[in-house]
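Lab notebook page, bench 4
Experiment: in silico fold of construct C2
Operator: M.H.
Input chain length: 102 residues
Purpose: comparison with the prior construct
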Amino acid sequence: MNIWIAIGVTVLGCYAVKLAGLLVPAGVLERPLVRRLAALLPVALLAALTAQQAFADGRALVLDARAAGLAAAAVALVLRAPFLVVIGAAVVVTAGARALGG
């Protein structure tokens, strides 16, 4: 039963955040600082999520095949490769590193 309470609280919280976003006056959203923050916040959150997924195992910091795959993807991005090539490079390097015991 506790899981349903957590799900209900999460649903209500998500709805409240969505509603709060709709109630913000348009004048506030036009301010340069708010526009800059709105542009950069998703990038920061995605970077944090990527780092957590690539370098964490529970509560421990690890460097394994996932880090090699992330590095390969970063190199492909720097070389301006298409998105599918970036993903493919990450997958191939990660799989290769795992096969080699990394």
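Observations: The CA atoms of residues 57 and 63 lie 10 Å apart. The chain has five helices and two strands.
Next step: discuss at group meeting.
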